[in-house]
Amino acid sequence: MRKTLVTGLLLSLTGAVFAQVPSPTNLGRNPYPQVGADRSVTFRVNAPDATALTLSLGKDYPMVKDEKGFWTVTTEPQVEGFHYYSLKVGGLTFNDPSVHSYFGTGRDCSAVEVPEDAEASAFYTPRQGVPQGAVRSVRYYSKACGEYRRMYVYTPAGYEQNPDKRYPVLYLQHGGGEDETGWIYQGFADVILDNLVAEGKAVPMIIVMVSGVARGADGNDAFEAMVTEDVIPLVDKRFRTISDRDHRAVAGLSWGAKQAYDLGLGYRDLFSWIGGFSGIIVIGEFRVRPAGYEDPEKFAAAYDGIFSDPDWFNRNYHLLFIGNGEAEGAHLQGMSNLLKERGINNVFYQSPRTAHEWLTWRRCLKEFAQRLFK
Amino acid sequence: MRKTLVTGLLLSLTGAVFAQVPSPTNLGRNPYPQVGADRSVTFRVNAPDATALTLSLGKDYPMVKDEKGFWTVTTEPQVEGFHYYSLKVGGLTFNDPSVHSYFGTGRDCSAVEVPEDAEASAFYTPRQGVPQGAVRSVRYYSKACGEYRRMYVYTPAGYEQNPDKRYPVLYLQHGGGEDETGWIYQGFADVILDNLVAEGKAVPMIIVMVSGVARGADGNDAFEAMVTEDVIPLVDKRFRTISDRDHRAVAGLSWGAKQAYDLGLGYRDLFSWIGGFSGIIVIGEFRVRPAGYEDPEKFAAAYDGIFSDPDWFNRNYHLLFIGNGEAEGAHLQGMSNLLKERGINNVFYQSPRTAHEWLTWRRCLKEFAQRLFK
After folding, report:
1. How confident is residue B282, by pLDDT bands cut at 50, 70 and 90?
2. How many domains does chain A have?
3. What is the mean pLDDT of residues A112-130?
4. Which chain A residues are Cβ-neighbours of B85 within 8 angstroms?
5. What is the mean pLDDT of residues B301-309?
6. Do B7 and A149 touch (CB under 8 A)?
7. How far is A52 from chain B (nearest CA, A)?
8. In B, which residues are within 8 Å of A141 by CB distance?
């Protein structure tokens, strides 16, 4: 029933000026979790016979039981945005039955949305009169993985009304512990693109979302083989794409940013637009500094020498976009600067206040999508 | 990650001849829940500090903790098919974190699939070489409900390759406590239709799935207004439908069967094909016998007199399909007979062995879909 999240979001945003509002992620009309004016969140769970209950949202909060058997707790003020959380009992981590679940942390996980104001959230809020694209759920057989899998494919408004028009494609990856549903249910990628296209700020494009968890029969990571040998050919066959590198982008968040960099920089014949949200380009060890970035030889050797000739890179790659959330720290700003020092053009975007969560990535997608295919 | 369910299903069916197989609903490669050769199910959950844990699958089973903190229990043999279940602790009902969740029982709920053999399950198992339709997730604004909602729309293979072809439409409802995702994730409606169409057993059709939980601003049930005033006009506008009653069907399961009968019999200008799976046509009280069925006047008055002229009904309705599971009892067979005694043509189908669950409804859809629009 995640469909109601959007409604809930609207309701909550409308009500956000008042004291307490239900989280947009609540099932039906459940009043809890409830977000306070100070962005603290109050949780309530009915477990009359439980002897202890813990809420886990960033940190653990012991819950307190009232005489009716309801366990409650109010957290510290939270950063606005989307936060996964869990309940814990006796060493078992599980869902809050009063909210929708979202695939994250490796399972269907509870989440709370701490709303920002209506103006700030307008870009990921559906509006009447805005032509809608469609999100398709497509089952496909992956030879690389030896199994049937599901991908989500967003086609922009007008796709079906213009049977002769072809479109550029963005391959968009979720983060660790998530799956191909994340960019729709947590990220609202379809709403963001519908709104940007309606405002003339983004080019109509197809967005392909696949699960980044991909193992071959041998148990090894088959992600790149799956995308390059199974997914891209299928998408170019089944959808009206412009199937060249100038019209193919790849982006991802966190772990998915690493996968996006590996695809975008590792397969230069396939991609020419790259976006990494809250993730690093790994050179040498899995850190920005000191590692490969300090060593001209390692840097020049990375990704088969992609950075060895900055002029070539800047001529051949239309966009290298690096984004993160302010609360995540300065390491990606540093990475962007290091790349620029070495002559590699890139665009850096920082989402005000937000942490390593979906509001950061909704904003990153908004900034990235407006620069694509232009 | 429900996408992996299909894979799991294949693996399990292949392995079903052996002793213990993981449920196809398990997340990733979790070994538990595990289905035995006798169709008993063994559950295992890690909760080292819990003092008690109960498994609820049809009935409550107390779980037993081993020295490592794993709680386990093996159920009685289960009927093959898809079964919701929950864990209980201290009066709190919640999900098993080791399986996918499915929207049922009013929340994202755990479920186990007790596989049947490969031959029996072939009709809802994806096959390579079978042309695939697509399932779209469409956000829409419902005036009747005053909110944004999400519907699923299945378009058959070839829909996009034949921009001039128009298709009949089946409106298909889920059961109580479920939502518009049920017929895809629990029911495999898309796979069933892909397979039937590929075998030439069903006419290519569009299937529209909406949530049956619909309230207006006044809090009253707005389902029929939503379907007839918001959904059908939107579908006929956005998709290439044949928009007349001869090419529009409605069906549903359980509570959704009641909704399907109310739409199909109550809106005779809109529908001419009706399917009810595990649900009754309510005449008088909410029982088949004695109620209205025993009273000629009540019977003739039902649904604005739809049954008052059997010849008219039989000429104007192409199909009234009634299905259920053998384990549900004989009441729907009785309802089918009562209708026939009164001259109302109908087709009755009974799913061998199965109960009030999704395997019954997958089989009902298979039988129903083959009779549609012919």
Report:
1. confident
2. 2
3. 93
4. none
5. 94
6. yes
7. 9
8. 126, 128
Q: Is A6 exposed, middle or buried (0-12, 13-18, 19+ CB in 10 A)?
A: buried
The interface predicted TM-score (ipTM) is: 0.83
Angle at A233 between CA A228 and CA A234, to 5 degrees: 120
> Same domain for A216 and A288?
yes
Q: Alpha carbon of B341 to those of A219, B122, B296, B297, B335: distances in Å?
A: 61, 36, 12, 15, 10
DSSP E strands, B264-314: 273-277
Based on the domain organization, do A28 and A90 belong to the same domain?
A: yes
Last residue of a domain, one of A114, A140, A168: A114
Report the predicted TM-score, pTM, of the whole model to 2 decimal places: 0.89
pLDDT of residue B8 exceeding 50: no
Interface of A with B in 50-109 (CB under 8 A): 50-51, 53, 69, 87, 89-95, 97-98, 100-101, 103, 106-108
Residue A374 lies in a domain: no
What does the pLDDT read at residue A372?
98
Q: Pick the range with the lowest mean pLDDT from A224-228, B183-187, B300-304.
A: B300-304
Q: A220 — contact with chain B (CB < 8 Å)?
A: no
Q: Is the pLDDT of residue A2 over 80?
A: no
Query: Which pLDDT tens digit goes with each residue over A41-98?
Result: 999 999 888 889 999 999 999 999 999 999 999 999 999 999 999 999 888 888 998 9
Please name the residues between 177 and 216 in chain B that touch chain A, using a CB distance below 8 Å: 179-180, 184, 190-191, 211, 213
Contact state of B95 with A95 under an 8 Å Cβ cutoff: yes
Q: Tell me the residue range of the domain where B315 lies.
A: 122-369
A2 CB within 8 Å of a chain B CB: yes
- pLDDT at B287 (0 to 100): 67
Helices (H), chain A: 3-15, 118-121, 182-185, 189-198, 223-225, 232-238, 255-266, 296-305, 310-316, 331-341, 358-369
| Domain final residue, candidates A114, A133, A165 | A114
Identify whether residues B177 and B110 lie together within a single domain. Answer: no
Residue A29 is assigned to a structural domain of this protein:
yes
Please say whether the beta carbons of A94 and A25 come within 8 A: no
Q: Is A126 on the interface with B (CB under 8 A)?
A: yes
Same domain for A349 and A201, yes or no, is yes
The answer, yes or no, to whether residue A119 has pLDDT greater than 70, is yes
Nearest to A319 by CA among A349, A356, A285: A349
For residues A230 and B142, give the distance between their C-alpha atoms in angstroms, rounded to a whole number.
Answer: 38
Q: Cα-Cα-Cα-Cα dihedral of B171, B177, B181, B184, to 10°?
A: -80
Establish if B312 touches chain A: CB-CB under 8 angstroms.
no
A144 to chain B nearest CA, in Å?
Answer: 14
Model confidence band, residue B87 (pLDDT cutoffs 50, 70, 90): very high
Please judge whether B148 and A3 are an interchain contact, meaning their C-beta atoms are less than 8 angstroms apart: yes
| A45-54, A271-280, B271-280: least confident range | A45-54
Same domain, B62 and B107: yes
Q: Looking at mean pLDDT, say which of B22-36, B149-163, B171-185 comes out highest.
A: B171-185
Reported as a single tens digit per residue, the pLDDT across A178-187 is 999 999 999 9
Hey, are the CB atoms on A92 and B47 less than 8 Å from each other?
yes
CATH, residue B109 = 2.60.40.10
B167, B43: one domain: no
Element (H, E) at B265: helix B255-266
Question: B106 and B170 share a domain?
Answer: no
Contact A23, A34 (CB under 8 A): yes
Q: Do A138 and B150 touch (CB under 8 A)?
A: no
- CATH code of residue A174: 3.40.50.1820
Structure confidence at residue A81 (pLDDT): 94
Pair (B138, B163) in one structural domain: yes
Q: Which of A41, A72, A62, A196 is nearest to A133 (CA)?
A: A196
In a domain, B374, yes or no: no
Q: What is the pLDDT of residues A283-321, one digit of tens each?
A: 876 666 655 677 888 889 999 999 999 999 999 999 999
Which residues of B are less than 8 Å from A103 in CB distance? 1
